[in-house]
Every structure is written in C-alpha cells, then in structure tokens.
Specification:
Blueprint (H helix, E strand, L loop, with lengths): L1 H32 L1 H15 L1
C-alpha cells in the first residue's frame, strides 16, 4: 500500500511537470504563429504575471 501511494505521488509530480512543459510549448507555438497578437499578449502577461 505504501509503495502504491508513493508511485501515485511520483506520477502526479511527473504529470505536473509534463503539463507545465506542454503549456510552455503551446505558448511558444502561438507566439510564432501569431507574431502581431503576441506583442499585445506579452504586455498584458508581464503586467498580470508580476
């Protein structure tokens, strides 16, 4: 039982890392596809992010 719960926690961490990487890749792809809109989004993202 302990090993099973341990593997579940490990899988959750891996999934979280994968999701974070996928989101970053999607953002990069959107910026490459839409360079004009990306400039406006970057200004809003920097303000809301910080």
């Amino acid at each position: 039982m302990v090993r099973h719960s341990g593997t579940e926690l490990g899988q959750r961490v891996l999934i979280d890392q994968l999701l974070a990487e996928v989101l970053l890749i999607l953002r990069c792809l959107q910026r490459v596809r839409e360079p004009e809109r990306s400039e406006d989004r970057e200004v809003h993202d920097t303000r809301s992010g910080s």
